[in-house]
Structures are given as C-alpha cells and as structure tokens.
Amino acid sequence: MNHMRTLFLFVGLMIGLMTRPFPIEAAPPATLEKIRSWAHDGYTRVVLDLDRPAAYEVSLHASAISVSLTNATPSARLLTTPPAISDGVIQKIELYQHPNHRLAVVITPKHHNPYKVFTLSGPDRVVIDILSVPEPVVPVPEKKPEKRRDQTRKTEKKKKPESAPVEPVTGIRTIVIDPGHGGKDPGAIGASGLTEKEVVLDVSRRLRTLIRQRLKKKVILTRDTDVFIPLGQRAALANRAGADLFISVHVNAAEDHDLRGVETYLFGRPTDAAAGALAARENAEDDKAMRDFEKIILDDMQRDFTLNAALTLAHFTQAAFVERIVPKYHTTSLGVKHAPFYVLSKTKMPAILAEIAFVSHPAEEARLARPSYRQEIAETFFAGVAAYIASPEAGGGP
User: Fold this and answer.
1) How far apart are the C-alpha atoms of 382 and 376, rounded to whole Å?
2) Blockwise average pLDDT, block size 10, the chain, 398 residues
C-alpha cells in the first residue's frame, strides 16, 4: 500500500511539473555596437551596427530623424566614443537610452533633407541615407559700368528684372485609392459575416468623394465594384494613370479577438514578425510577391524619394487616426510600420497601405458595419491626406 501511495505521489508530482507554466524568457536586447557615417556623392550614409536584428520605428521631429530601436542597448565603446561626423550634411548624432531597452538614435541634418531607412543583414545593421540638399546660390550683383562724362545721354529702356527661376510643379494632382480584395477574394471575415472587401470599397468611395469635392483632385479607384483584380494590375493601373499618390485600404484580422487598432504601412523589410505575417497574407494571391522582394528594394534613386514621401504620408495618415479615432473609440494606434506588400512594391509613386480596424474584434466589427462609422474613417483618411498634400514634402498644395 505504501508503494502504491508513493507511486501516486510521484505521478502527481510529474503531472504537476508537466502542466506548470514555465516562464517564457524575453529575447535578449540587441547591442548597438557602433555608429558609422560617411559621405557619398549626393547623400550621407549613417549605419547602426548591431549584433542581432532589432525592430525599429522612424519618426521625424522638425528636421531631426529619430530611429528608435525597440529592444536594444548601446555598447560600452559607443557610450565612451561619440559617433564622428565627417561632412556638411549632418549637424549632429545623439543617442538616448529609454526604459525597457528602448534606444533612440537622433540624426539632425542641417536642412530638411529627404532620407530613407532600411535594414541589411550579414552583419545586421540599420541604414539611414540622408540625401544632400544643395546650398542656395546667392547671386552677386553686377557692377554697373561708369558712364563717360562726354557721353551724350540717351533714353534707355529699363531692363525688365529677370524672372525668378520657375520651380518644378510638384503638387498632387491624381490619387489612386485601392480597395483591397474583391470578387472571389473576400479578405478578412468577421464573426457576423462582415467582409473586408465590402467595408473597404465603401470607405474608398466615401474618401474619393471627399477628395474630389474638397481638394478638387482627380481620384481613381482600382475597383469600383465587387470584382477581383490581381495585385500587379492594381499597381499597373496607378502607374499608367501617372498617379501622385497610391492609398490601399484594408481591414485586419487576428486569431486573438482582443487585438484591435489601426496601423499604416509602407514598403520595406518587415518591422516585426506580425508585419511580415500580415504582408504574407495580403500577398497570398500572387506567388511572385515574396520572391521579388530582394530584387526590388532600395536600389534605384526614384524609389529612395518615393519611400521617403511614403513615410511622411504614412505618418500624416496615422496621426489623423490617433487624433480622431483612437481616443473617441478607445482603440489602439499600432503605429507606422514597414512590410513587403507586393502591391506597394510595384508602384512608382508614394504608396501606403492602411489597416483601418480589426474585423475579428467584436466591437470594431460592429462599428465597421455602420455607415456612420465608415464615413468617420473616410473623414479621418481625408484629414491625413489633406495634411500631407499641404506639406512641403508634397509641394505645399495644389
């Protein structure tokens, strides 16, 4: 009997050990080993050398570019040796260590310079390219020749002042709005049966009306009915139309039904695992999407400029949601992120993809079903787009 009791106690102990939740260790922070910078023809490159990959966020404060590493600490060497600056583009580089292993590298150019941020591996590093801005040329006034005393006065026609150089027209004229999915592809589906394709088409139509009426811009929808259009054809339509902006509208979903919020994406290496998974899901209809990624990214100068403009547009759009939707409905701002969305990779103009809510969240699905809420989303989108169009990055207006 004692043997049986001992056996039961042993089995009970083993079951308890097997079912006891073990603590999951958080991933160790990456180490920012050093910061390097050097000048190239037309741009200055700043490289953040890491010992392992680290997620990051980029924000712009006045002219300062802040690259915030979400799980990183500086090396001892970096703390004692500040990064050297060797050209006339960058004014200073500063390092700020925040709680919870959040490390910010703030680069302040001398002007409002265009920039791009991307990652490379082998070894892991975050790269910031800051494009040069030519110094304004101050014309030297010409000396007037002295008139000879014996020269008879002649009536001379006054020369017309030389006109100022005509600046290239950079204003936004044509905007393509891309309602995601459609036709045979319903996109995400909520518990009540509400489909992503239905919601985003309605929001896109409302946004089109607002932009046409209030900004007098030309607006094209990639689809205006419930039809399926491949990702490549959506981008090709925008390119053929010579569009100045491309906005893809989507609704998110997650297995965790408590997850909610809004996030705005631009093309790039995935900011985190969730961004990569979302891009893979959205790219699923086109098997070329992921294969093309390494060939597409960041090698031609035109893409450098469009990615920088897309980053600015994404921040204006996300800021509008943070101001109008997040506090009113107690939802969450999931931020501006990068991900390799195929439809964004093929556009030749600044392009973003916005996930406006989670249809898998019961409260957000209920709101998305209401026409009044869809109008609020369209108004919020409009506020972000209008703010971007009025900004210097977009040419400052019509």
Assistant:
1) 10
2) 49 46 62 87 85 84 86 87 76 88 90 78 81 55 51 44 36 94 94 97 98 96 95 93 96 93 85 72 59 47 64 91 93 87 86 96 97 98 94 64
Counted domains in the chain: 2
Closest among 334, 321, 310 to 248, alpha carbons compared: 310
State the distance between the two ends of the chain, measured CA to CA, in whole angstroms: 91
Domain limit, last residue, from 98, 131, 164: 131
Whichever domain contains 104, its CATH number is 2.60.40.3500
Name the pTM for this structure.
Answer: 0.60
Classify residue 319: in a domain, yes or no. yes
β-strand partners of 182: 185
274 plus 325 within the same structural domain: yes
Q: Are residues 288 and 381 in the same domain?
A: yes
Residue 45: domain span: 30-131
Please state, in angstroms and rounded to a whole number, the distance separating the CA atoms of residues 107 and 96.
Answer: 11
Are 210 and 118 members of one domain? no
CATH of the domain at 345: 3.40.630.40
| 350 cis-preceded (ω within 30 degrees of 0) | no
Total count of residues recorded for the chain = 398
Q: Strand pairing partners for 183?
A: none
What CA–CA distance (Å, rounded) separates 233 from 49?
Answer: 39
Which residue, 228, 217, 203, 254, is CA-closest to 377? 203
Q: How far is CA 153 from CA 35, 149, 156, 159, 171, in A?
A: 68, 10, 9, 17, 49
Residue 26, number of CB atoms within 10 A of its CB: 8
Strands 351-358 and 245-252: parallel
Residue 126 resides in a domain: yes
The answer to whether residue 139 sits within a structural domain is no
